[in-house]
Amino acid sequence: MKFTSKSRLMIAVGIVVVFLLGYLCGSMTQQYAAAQGIGGMLEKAGKMGGPVGSAAQLGSSIVEMQDHVNGLQKNIDTLKKVQSALTGN
Fold first, then answer.
1. 30-41, pLDDT tens digit by residue?
2. pTM of the full predicted structure?
3. Domain of 57, in residue numbers
4. Domain count of the chain?
């Protein structure tokens, strides 16, 4: 099948239009993930034992580490504010 330059252009435009419509529809119905309440589930699963319990304990420790990192980041932000106030920057 021989395509002319006009038909190739129409195919390319069609592909772009379909992509843009898909992107638009996908962005309108986008759902955001929420990880609240995971700690309780991980604690219950951690008591099960076996591979599930080990994975749950790993997940619990990761959640704890993330909480500590968030706290440290807040402390760093506070120290930066104090430093900028002292140096006048």
1. 666 665 555 566
2. 0.41
3. 5-28+39-87
4. 1
